[in-house]
Amino acid sequence: MSTANEIIGLMETMGNEQQRENLMRFFKTAPGQYGHGDEFLGIKVPQTRQVVKAVEKDFPLSEVPRLLMCRWHEVRLCGLLILVGQFERLATKRLASQADAISQRDAIVSLYLQYAEQANNWDLVDLSAPKILGHWLLLPTALGDKLTIMDQLAASPCLWKQRMSMVSSWKTSQQGDPSWCLRYAEVHLHHPHDLMHKAVGWMLREMGSRVSMELLRDFLSRHAHEMPRTMLRYAIEKMSDAERRQWMTDSH
After folding, report:
1. Model's pTM, two decimal places?
2. Which of 118, 97, 116, 123 is nearest to 45 (CA)?
3. Residue 68 class from Cβ within 10 Å (0-12 exposed, 13-18 middle, 19+ buried)?
């Protein structure tokens, strides 16, 4: 399969009605909920990954936008995971500073940013942003100032772009760089949406676990009193029972 239409046709035959109904409930697609209007075929993620594995290596980048613009959630996920796979192939130590690899990675990042609003649910963001944008932050690029690009995502009115700016730090924290996490945790500290409260708390927890619990405690000592409870609870999950109780008590 080398075209988007072939992938869409295949995936439409893989749907399951019971799974479709479960996914629509799980991803909050009812009117007024954050996933309102999202449409599902009823395909589990491992099945989608099998499709990706079969096509990813040689799939033309020019065909990916058709997948990302598809009405079906699972097809959009397939397109995003193709980008992830292709980016990771170009991001090995051997290729990190190679000019052609830099150019190809930048093309993937540019396409990802162009169609970012099509990653319109938390799973689509979380399965793609850390491995594309987060990894890109650690590598040479010719796209311009990384901070400017990420700040534009953080300042966007689009919830999913905002979440990208935050969860991309999962990768940078894994590699020992806390700066991206701390920056966007402060930017999104007073975000109104529960999905961002969870994302910020989760990324702070990972930063503390991967980089420094003292950095996490320092952040909390300055901000715990103004953090939404959900955000704080997520951030302190890996601390001892006694320390978690102390933070929850002291913060309010």
Report:
1. 0.94
2. 123
3. buried
Q: How many Å apart are CA 164 and CA 119, to the nearest integer?
A: 9
Helix (H, G, I), strand (E, B) or coil at 72: strand
Half-sphere exposure of 96 (CA within 13 A, CB side): 9
Phi, psi (rounded to 5 degrees) for 212: -165, 120
Give pLDDT tens digits for 183-197: 999 999 999 999 999
User: Burial code of 34-64, b = ≥16 C-beta within 10 A, e = fewer?
Assistant: bbeebebbbbeeebbbebbeebbeebeeebb
Secondary structure (3-state) at 39 = strand
Closest CA to 129 of 74, 174, 84: 84
Position 111, amino acid: L
pLDDT digit string (tens) for 162-182? Answer: 999 999 999 999 999 999 999
pLDDT in tens, 58-98: 999 999 999 999 999 999 999 999 999 999 999 999 999 99
30: confidence class by pLDDT, cuts 50, 70, 90: confident
Alpha helix segments (H runs only) across the chain: 4-12, 17-26, 45-55, 64-68, 73-89, 99-114, 122-126, 129, 135-136, 146-155, 159-167, 169-174, 179-187, 194-210, 213-223, 229-235, 241-251
CA-based torsion, 135, 136, 139, 145: positive or negative: negative
**Cα–Cα distances in Å, from 50 out to 32, 231, 246?**
33, 34, 46
Residue 147, number of CB atoms within 10 A of its CB: 12
